[in-house]
Amino acid sequence: MGIKYEDNELLISHFFSKKRISYKDLKSIRITVDGIVFETRDGEKVTEKDRLLDDKANLYEAVRKHNISYRDEVELDGMSETFTREELEPMIVKARDYAQELTSQDVKAQLGDAYDIRIEVSEIDEYIQMDLYLQKDGKDDPKRGSFDDITLAFLVEWDTISRRALYGITEEMTDNSKLMEAVQYSMEYLYSEI
């Protein structure tokens, strides 16, 4: 039972049936408290009770590629403001710069001046996040990739008219004390793995 997000379609499996829906045939996706509602361009609605969207890279790529209306009503409930990617950019830069300062000071104090942290902002599925990499002598540690990530924003809606994403933001984006807590947790994780 459940949903598989394949390359060109989603596969919804129940006990005695399977339904395939091509992404190009999807009109909208709504995440509600009762589940996920998929509506096709011909008006058919399919509801999946499990709200979890696992292994969803193909789905979010299809939302953008096929301009499928997407709305996470659960996340939007109580949210006062959403942001476009362009509106997020100055907030992301500010959070990244603050995290860079904190991590750089910390790793040098713990491991020595040869060490530093490189922070890269990435977009994975519906998340915009900071990926943290340990560096020694200006080069990424070859034994590990990103040792942790901190989520800054998440997709809550795809606007089909403007053809762009709208995001909600995490506390770490706007509250330096929350960002500091997240950074400290990440650094403790790093030190426990070394």
Architecture blueprint of SSEs:
Blueprint: E1 2-5, E2 9-13, E3 18-22, E4 26-32, E5 35-40, E6 45-48, H1 57-65, E7 69-72, H2 73-76, H3 85-111, E8 115-124, E9 127-136, E10 139-140, E11 148-159, E12 164-169, H4 171-174, H5 176-193
Parallel strand pairs: 4-7
Antiparallel strand pairs: 1-2, 2-3, 4-5, 5-6, 7-11, 8-9, 9-10, 9-11, 11-12
Helix pairs in contact: 3-5
Structure report:
By secondary structure, this protein is an alpha+beta fold. It contains five helices and twelve strands. It has helices spanning 57-65, 73-76, 85-111, 171-174, 176-193, and strands at 2-5, 9-13, 18-22, 26-32, 35-40, 45-48, 69-72, 115-124, 127-136, 139-140, 148-159, 164-169. The strands form two sheets. Strands 4, 5, 6, 7, 8, 9, 10, 11 and 12 form a nine-stranded mixed beta sheet that branches. Strands 1-2-3 form a three-stranded antiparallel beta sheet. Strand 11 (148-159) and strand 12 form a beta hairpin. Helix 3 crosses helix 5 (176-193). The longest helix has 27 residues, at 85-111. The model has no long low-confidence stretch (mean pLDDT 92).
